[in-house]
Amino acid sequence: MSDDNVTPLRPSRPCAICGKKTQPAFHPFCSKHCADVDLNRWLKGAYVIPAAEEQDDWSEDTGAQTGGQGDET
Ligand SMILES: [Zn+2]
Q1: What CATH number is given to the structural domain containing 20?
Q2: Does 27 reside within a domain?
Q3: Phi then psi for 50, rounded to 5 degrees?
Q4: Ligand 1 centre and the CA of 39: distance in Å?
Q5: Residues spanned by the domain of 44
Q6: How many separate domains does the chain show?
Q7: Predicted pLDDT of residue 65
Q8: Residue 2 C-alpha to ligand 1 middle, in angstroms?
Q9: Which H or E element spans position 48?
Q10: Ligand 1 centre and the CA of 9: distance in Å?
Q11: For 35-72, what is each residue's pLDDT tens digit?
């Protein structure tokens, strides 16, 4: 009835890893698995890349792999 009264904390974004709907418990990911994947990426990246400016690139790339962002009106 009072759906209009509910204000989401933030617009729902797809999981940065697999593009599925995120879960509050694992935000901003859909599951612990994806959170682990991201964490591993981050850790590996921190070890492999001492100081590369390319980090800006991959973060954008992971968010745009599904292309399912035309859902909101
Ligand atoms: Zn996921």
Answers
A1: 3.30.50.10
A2: yes
A3: -65, -50
A4: 12
A5: 13-50
A6: 1
A7: 55
A8: 30
A9: helix 32-48
A10: 20
A11: 999 999 888 887 665 555 555 555 555 555 555 566 66
Distance CA 3, CA 65 (A): 31
Q: Residue 1 Cα, ligand 1 centroid: separation in angstroms? A: 31
Question: How far is CA 6 from its chain centroid?
Answer: 23
The 3-state secondary structure of 24-43 reads: HHHCCCCCHHHHHHHHHHHH
Segment 1-42, tens digit of pLDDT = 556 676 656 667 899 899 999 999 998 899 999 999 999 988
* Residue at 45 is within a domain: yes
Tell me how far the alpha carbon of residue 69 lies from the centroid of ligand 1, in angstroms.
15
59 domain residue, yes or no = no
Q: How far is the CA of 57 from the centre of ligand 1 (A)?
A: 20
Ligand 1 center to residue 21 CA distance, Å? 7
* Distance (Å) from CA 47 to ligand 1 centroid: 23
